[in-house]
Amino acid sequence: MVVDRADVLPKDALEYFAALAEDPHVDLALIVIGSLAWGAALPKRAPNLHSHTYRRVRLEPLTDAEAVTVVPGLHPIWADTTAREITGLNREVGGTLRGWHRVTAHRLAASAAGTGV
Question: Which of 15, 35, 48, 76 is found 20 to 30 A from 106 (Cα to Cα)?
Fold first, then answer.
């Protein structure tokens, strides 16, 4: 299960995820995504969930070179996109996968509407 924006969830939700992780009858891999500040506060805010933390990983924004390599595989809409266009868009979205998701959704919506953006 992937929980994004966990930093905006109430403590009860975090405790529920900890309970799921502790339940021997639940086969669950839990990926919790939140801000750096939230991750640092996790031991105090949700100690049970923190106790199940295997690894904390910080995801850096994609560099332009990484984006040129990775983005064409994110969605078929990017398959024939030039490296120059990907680099420009990567700078606009700040190199974040959230940004790429947003621009992909916009491009798909524009394509479906026939505007060809």
Answer: 35
Which string of b and e fits 71-110 if b means at least 16 CB within 10 Å? bbeeeeebeeeeeeebbebbeebebeeebbeebbeebeee
**Rounded CA gap, 94 and 29, in Å?**
29
First to last CA, the chain: 34
Please give the structure tokens belonging to residue 84.
């120059």
96 Cβ neighbours under 8 A, 6+ residues apart: 61, 62
CA 117 to CA 106: how far, in whole Å? 9
Q: Sort residue 116 into left (φ over 0), alpha (ψ -120 to 50) or beta.
A: left
Local confidence band at 11 (pLDDT 50, 70, 90 cut-offs): confident
- Give the containing element (helix H, strand E) for 11: helix 11-22
Identify which has the larger pLDDT, 96 or 44.
Answer: 96
Per-residue pLDDT reduced to its tens digit, 47-69:
888 877 777 778 889 999 999 99
